[in-house]
Structure to design on (146 residues):
């Protein structure tokens, strides 16, 4: 059973690495950033990917993904996302924060290199927006505690 799981994991990793290194998959995320439902699905995939395979992805591919996320989620984009009329906006921000949390909690030294950029994004871009948004805490509690 372990051998089958290892073969499956290697196949998935191979496909993910190919998708993110040979195609502009992450670049296209910038194109979809204004479509909150699509961004929600992309971040859902990335969250599952990091929850399951972040160590196997390695620091190079992880850095590529994180850099694109940090580039995509500018202050303007974060503001637009949080002000989205549906709950998709709060789901996107919640998934984005969960991805960042997973990376920050990873004990491997190679993941600590992301810490300054993640802290900068959270404190300089996201935090001021959250302070401005009324009832965000209520949205966050409702979306994280179903």
């Amino acid at each position: 059973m372990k051998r089958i799981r290892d073969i499956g994991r290697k196949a998935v990793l191979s496909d993910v690495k190919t998708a993110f290194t040979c195609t502009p998959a992450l670049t296209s995320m910038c194109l979809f950033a204004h479509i909150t439902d699509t961004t929600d699905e992309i971040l859902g995939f990335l969250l599952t990917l990091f929850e399951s395979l972040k160590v196997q992805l390695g620091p190079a591919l992880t850095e590529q993904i994180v850099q694109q996320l940090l580039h995509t989620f500018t202050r303007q984009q974060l503001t637009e996302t949080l002000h989205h009329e549906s709950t998709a906006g709060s789901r996107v921000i919640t998934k984005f924060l969960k991805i960042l949390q997973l990376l920050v909690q990873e004990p491997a030294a190679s993941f600590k290199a992301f810490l300054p950029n993640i802290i900068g994004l959270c404190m300089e871009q996201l935090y001021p927006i959250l302070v401005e948004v009324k009832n965000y805490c209520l949205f966050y509690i409702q979306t994280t505690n179903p």
